[in-house]
Amino acid sequence: MFNFSANHLLLLSRTECRGFAVLVMRDDSTRRVYRLYDFTNSHHFTPGQYYCVSGKVNSADKLYLAVESVKPDTKHASAPTVPAPVDGVGGRPMR
User: What is the pLDDT of residue 52?
Assistant: First the structure.
């Protein structure tokens, strides 16, 4: 197991499964997207709010980012009102 932490995360989606929740979050600083697993189902997110998330990486057979703690990111108070375009959308056509 390894530790992980990320700041400036914005919730994209939450899917409830039996016994856990799957959170898809984007780091607005790096534009990386993470799939996080909340096995305690105790973390709640407000839309449009940035978060700092820490937890453990379980790499036994698949990569799971298991959430241990969540707190609001006070350095980035709120999300931008205009969402950033997804790669390839709204840009110049490829040739």
Answer: 92
Residue-wise burial string across 50-88, b where 16 or more C-beta atoms lie within 10 A, e elsewhere: bbbbebeeeeeeeebbbbeebeebeebeebeeeeeeeee
- 50: helix, strand or coil: strand
Per-residue pLDDT averaged across 59-73, rounded? 81
With respect to residue 79, please indicate whether it lies within any of the assigned structural domains.
no
Q: Give, rounded to a whole angstrom, the gap between the first and last alpha carbons of the chain.
A: 44
What CATH number is given to the structural domain containing 49? Answer: 2.40.50.140
Total of domains in the chain: 1
